[in-house]
TrEMBL record:
The keyword Glycosyltransferase does not apply. This is FAD-binding protein. It comes from Corallococcus sicarius. Signal peptide: none annotated. Keywords: Flavoprotein, Oxidoreductase. InterPro entries: FAD-dep_OxRdtase_2_FAD-bd (IPR003953), FAD/NAD-bd_sf (IPR036188). The keyword Flavoprotein applies.
Amino acid sequence: MASVELTRRELVAAFLGASVASACQRQQAPRAPVPGAIVDRAVDTGHKLRGGPLPRAETFEPVDVLVVGAGAAGLSAAWRLAGAGVKDVRVVELEGEA
């Protein structure tokens, strides 16, 4: 049988690699149910928009970028655009407030 010579670095790497690999097992983490409900104050408005033709705009204002939705993603997008130098960014929201 031929002998195999390993350097100290190779031996340590083999031991560490084996221990890390044994720790990488797929296990399901216990999941507790998350309490909550969907609260939507704009249900009536949303259904009016979905159910028929859209009302004609009273005014028209050109903008460089229009962000639809003032939630976390919309406000983050507007903030990043403004930070990137886009001057005319407008955010619209279905509900009266965000």
